[in-house]
Fold this sequence. Notes:
Number of strands: 0
Strand content: under 5%
Largest sheet: none
Distance between the termini: 60 Å
Amino acid sequence: MTLPIFFEDKIKKVRDKLDNVSNPPIPCDASETATSSFTCFNEVSDDTIRDIIMKSPSSSSSLDAIPTWLLKECLGDLLATIDHTHCESVDFIRHISFVVQGISRFSTD
């Protein structure tokens, strides 16, 4: 099986399953407050990301976007994308944290 066909099949299976899912309401209590916070995010190197992935078990779940063995096999080609995604995620969390802190200060004034 080629990599493009693998992903096409995976996406088709996910879409088929999503067609049969109803959207249950997510309970949300606006009076609840966060009990933890992220105050510091450490930068990680490509070598650290590579080590974490390579040391992880090669077992996979049907929920995985890509089987772990395939991720490890293609890691050289995917590492830059994984690193970019990680950096973008950290930046997004930093921005959200800043916004939430501002809202919290505004709402207590």
